[in-house]
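user: can you give me the structure for this one chain? tokens are fine.
assistant: on it. calling the predictor now.
[tool input]
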Amino acid sequence: MSMNQTDNYQLDATRWAKGRNTLMLTVLISVIACVAGYLNDPVQFHRSYIIAFSYVAATGLGAFFFVMVQYLTGSAWSVTMRRIMENIMITLPACAILFLPIAFGLKDIYPWTNRAANPLLGTKGAYLTENFFVLRTYIYFALWSIWIFAIYYQSTKQDKERSARQMNVIARWSAPGLFLAIVVGTLASYDWLMSLEPRWYSTIFGLYILSGGALTFMSIVTLICLGFRRAGILKNSITPEHYHDLGKWMFALTAFYTYMAFSQYLLIWYANLPEETIWYRHRSVGGWLGISLAMPFIRFLIPFFITLSRPAKRSLKMIAALAIWSIIVEYVDLYWVVMPTYFKTGPQISWMDFATLAATLSVCALVFWSRFRKNKLAPVGDLRFEQSLHFENA
């Protein structure tokens, strides 16, 4: 009997409903907490919220990019996990709704909205206007959503038709889609995060943010697969060989993120231009200095050397620990990117940091989970599905 006969690829209705109810309760509680936070201190709420929003949006972009890469390269190893990846990808259009609190709170988040305090914006002043900022963001989401829903529709359609046509159609969408993920994603990161300090600029900043989002995405995929395994879902379809490759990807993305971060720092240090170095200067004083010095260790050295060996990448406990670690330190990284804009002497942790993160994550989790109500847990119609079931690492 082949492996694919031992797994049920349709989620049980009772189990799905239980998961939905749990997530809806989490959404309700966290949204109520956010509303209370907004009513108590709207400025702090918006500042906390931009970090949480950027966190989930970057993760969705990482999923969008990775799914398209799998189709373009014809990868077989990831097929049994790809529906999980696609369901994370489809949380990105939902971020268009999650952007609304930012759209109504621009003055609390972005210093460039106060023209009197930023008279030296120059030509950036025409670009950094509130209406144009919101319009650009929704153009980004419109473009991403068109591609994402087109890819997802063809993928789920293939579950029934079991034809190569859907694979070819998605591959044709994916080639220009990579442009949307990287180039438009870079523009979005400039708008949402780099413009927090409007006179500062870095051409590498977009890839710095996107690489962190990609690592978070891969870490979340790993934890979801392990959670499913513990619940007896896809236990035989996602094997230790697949987890080994997930470990490889987390290892590779850790190295790539570090390369982007170090390249940005090195180029700014070497050029020694005041309008560039000021960004690192703000993160080298007071309590921010300790985080800045810790970043190379928590973001690179520790995860890199832990997963350097083959046995570590084949240990489910080890890659689970690495995934949790990566998810946490990505939030720390974004906090380090955003909060020195407002708090010059060091971190000032607020309970709203946790409430906004819980709200955005739970909304995205609900969108993710809702897709399993009718759709298969895995793309069973993919012609490479059987090959993926028997995948083995070299």
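assistant: here you go. Residues 200-347 form one domain. The chain is about 75% helix and 0% strand.
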